[in-house]
Amino acid sequence: MNVSTGGRLRGRATVAALVCAIALIPGPSYAAPNDPGPGNDSSIERIRTELDGLYRQAEVATEAYDAANVKATRQTKRLASLQTELARAEGRVNDLRDLVGAAARTQYRGGYLASTGIQLLLGDHPDQALNEAAQTRQAMLGIANATETQKSARAELDGRTEAAAKELRELTRTREDKAGAKKEIEKKITEAERIESGLEEKDTRKLAQLEKQRAEESKSKWPGSGSGGGGGSGNGTKVSGAAGKAVGFAMAQIGKPYVWGAVGPSSYDCSGLTSAAWAAAGHPIPRTSQAQWQGLTRVSLASARPGDLIIYYDATHVGMYIGGGQIVHAPRPGRMITTAPAASMPILGVVRPGV
Question: Is it the case that residue 127 has pLDDT exceeding 70?
Answer without folding.
Answer: no
